[in-house]
Amino acid sequence: MNTKINFAGIEMKNPVTVASGTFGYGREYSDFFDLGLLGAVITKGTSLKPKSGNKPPRVCETASGMLNSIGLQNPGVEYFANNDLPYLRKFDTKIIVNACGSSIDEYVELCKILNTLDIDGVELNLSCPNVKEGCMAFGNTYEGVKEVTSKVRKILDKPLIVKLTPNVTDIASIAKGVEDAGADAVSLINTLLGMKIDIYKKRPVLANNTGGLSGPAIKPVAVRMVYQVSKAVNIPIMGLGGIISGEDAIEFMLAGATAISIGAGNFIDPYTSIKTIDGIKEYMKKCNIENISDIIGKVEMN
Amino acid sequence: MPKKVLAKLIKKEEIIKGIFKFSVEAKEIVNSSKPGNFIEIRVSNQKDPFLRRPISIYNLDKENGILEFIFQVKGSGTNILSEKEIGDKIDIIGPLGNGTFKIDKYNKIAIIGGGIGIFPLYELAKQAKKQGKIIDGYLGFRNKDFVMLEKEFKEVTDNLIITTDDGSYQNKGFAIDYLKEKMEKEKYECIYACGPIPMLRVVQKYALENNINCQISLEEKMGCGLGVCLGCAVKTAKSPKDKPEYFHVCKGGPVFNAKDVEF
To answer: How would CATH label the architecture of A5-55+71-195+213-295?
Structure first.
């Protein structure tokens, strides 16, 4: 049985990765299992300078999911390079850094630094819904996505993945912008913008009023978007949104994803990613699949 | 280091209406837990309710590897938890939190708790008492119907003062007012507090103004409980006004030095 995949030039031992913002820089989860079991670790969204994030409350539970408005709190790329990267490198897994910025210049400056580090790829975050500047502001038009991605592409030699927001009318056209700019892959979906109201206080629960919805509640939206994007572009897709089991992962792969990420699922059980790898193997056994890459995009539409 | 265990429920008691005390077998967690640590419970394997529930540790029976926690039924998650039966396995991660109650330095201390915030103070008091420290307790409740664990706290304190907001049981008023009154004579070296935010603010203000050591256990909405999602932010006291900086209750806390946090 072969679970290896090649994602945008990154050779992974299996298609299972952990999504940015749900796994920190790996330390906390290494208390529970060997990070070397994962296909790749995608780091917490990292910016040029440290960011302190949004006011609390920053998270709340919703039906089969949660809202978050963390606001990209992170220690900055320099701290990451000196403290977290050497730690992560001890494990036999691939490292993809999620990169965020509030202007095109910032994305470019950050990626120039990332280009010099011992990492396996960069995931450009054009999709965080919780910050005022950058991110989703670039990520919701074809032109915006193409412009940032092209400028980063010029200075980045490593595999470049662009993470897309689902908060758009036509996800396929946005993905086309990524491909046209020369990126190696897309990842989708980031969180769906949502809101929860405390009916007694008559105010939103989150201090930032709105936040990003994640968890099993968003999975059908994500699967649909992965399918649409897979029909529109030729670059590989990292699929995510509510995956908590091997069955969920297979669904995304059939829809067209080459690799998948576990996001909020890491919160409910630290072993969700490991269980997902096991679940994929069980499915392969049950359905007589020798190579996991054989099922990518194999959904047959009615 | 936190562990994930399936802990067998061996005793269950509704101590007052809607508030349950659970005793579970969780040797691996008990062995490495300190007063102030908390646990996270996944109440079911279903997708809803989705997140784990952070719950403070009430009592550690190290000899028998038994962990006790007390929780109030507030919503769907705690309701499902309250329906567990003896013999059921409960999915628990713990111990969590790096900020725990520190008692080594002090010989005469006071604990002050309000309502369901009194639970994490029990193990602290128990350990302090065992170490031969002098410890007074001040526990405040809304009214006589909400008074709980009086006997248990009496056993682990030298003096225990119970207050009710309306005076329907023992002393009328707020626990902090009774503590303030006693402070002059007793000169506690440190105050340990847990309870509703308005109460904690009063305790914090009093401690800071009078230069008294004070450790506060905080609560905030959590995503992961492990220090990963950065959801449970609490402002650091040192942060500049225009550029707030944050600790996280699950990682830096849940117990903080009262000087360090603004809430």
So the answer is: Alpha-Beta Barrel (3.20)
Say whether A241 sits in a helix, a strand or coil: coil
Report pTM.
0.95
CB of B9 less than 8 A from some CB of A:
no
CA distance A160 to chain B (A): 24
Q: Are residues B20 and B130 in the same domain?
A: no
Instruction: Verify whether residue A128 is a known catalytic residue.
Output: yes
Nearest chain A residue to B244, by CA:
A52
> With contact defined as beta carbons under 8 Å apart, do A259 and A18 qualify?
no
| Residue in chain B lying closest to A31 (CA) | B1
B10-56 per-position pLDDT tens digit: 999 999 999 999 999 999 999 999 999 999 999 999 999 999 999 99
Q: Using CA atoms, how far apart are residues B96 and B114, in angstroms rounded to an integer?
A: 22
Segments of A189-293 assigned E as strands = 192-195, 197-198, 203-204, 210-214, 237-239, 259-262
Of B47, B52, B234, the CB nearest to A216: B47
ipTM over 0.85: yes
Residue B27's domain comprises: 3-96
Of A21, A58, A61, the CB nearest to B50: A61
